[in-house]
Amino acid sequence: MPRRAIVLCAATATAFTRPRSVVTRSRPTLHASFDERKEAYLAEPEFDALSLRQWRRETLVRYSNANQSEPIRILLFLLTTLALLGSAQLADALGAPPPEPYA
To answer: By three-state DSSP, how is residue 96 classified?
Structure first.
């Protein structure tokens, strides 16, 4: 019986001591203000499919707000180019007569 009491006392000897302080590193993004997180988000690079380059997100946001018709213009130009390049082959496939030269 006394041996059990010694083991019990040894196991609970630290129960009433002052706890050690635990230092944890906080992540700056969790405690940062909204403006700091927004600034960090806008500073990250993002790939732009139309220009095939990486830009800062802030640059893409400003560009898209200022030039909202630019992507539409690029896509319309691409579709028009493809239609004009393929019009002769499409006409041949449909059996249309070749165009006559101007006199």
So the answer is: coil
List of E strands, 1-103: 45-48, 53-56
How many Å apart are CA 55 and CA 57, to the nearest integer?
6
Q: Say what the pTM is.
A: 0.36
Task: Write out the two tokens for 96.
Answer: 């249309």
Pairing between strand 45-48 and 53-56? antiparallel
Report d(CA 66, CA 73) in Å as an integer.
14
From first CA to last CA, the distance across the chain in angstroms is 123
Dump pLDDT digits (tens) for 12-32: 666 667 767 776 665 555 567
DSSP letter assigned to residue 49: T
CB atoms within 10 A of CB 66: 8
